[in-house]
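Working notes for the structural subgroup meeting. M.R. asked for a predicted model of this chain before we commit to crystallization trials. I am recording the input and output together here so anyone reviewing the notebook later can reproduce the run.

Input as submitted:
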Amino acid sequence: MPDLTPLAENLILKKQEEVSNVKILFVGRFGWIKGLDILLEAVQKLRNKTINFEITIVSNCKSKPRVDIPKLPWICWINECDHATVMQLFQQAHIYIAPSRKESYGLTYLEGLANGCVVFTRNAEPQREFVDYGKAGIVMDHTSSDDIAQKLIEMIKNSEKRSEFALNGMRLFKQKWGCDVVEKKWREAIHCCLS
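Returned structure, recorded in token form:
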């Protein structure tokens, strides 16, 4: 991911400070597989609370079964967009979440970490590792809208916690998946093969 430059710490802190409307982001071409229906059920539960948030969904929702996205003022649905636009959305978002039913790896989780989002991962490998088992993000029960809703409420209400997780996530990204780190590992592997 050579084009993925981590957001600076001061920008992460500024983004995660007290805000009147927390921005949640979901990115996944195949909505049902990525758990969009469960997420929508969870955020519907949040609207009954006295918290302010909006959610942006980037998904073409063409997978079977189809996920219907309600037309509500606090839900923004983008059918498809280019990678540069998705990166702008990550830079603006406070929380990135994808309660995937199936996930082989999940580059979007890493994009969320690099961009100073609080990343919510499914409770499975390797996604738990992406958030250092809860030290650099949130591990959720991706099958439970109640668990997702409760953990979202905690993060939406607590800007201090959001800042802590976002910074830890960005630092973890730089330490494990940053371009210079990955390049060094590849060089070592190639050198070992040639020796």
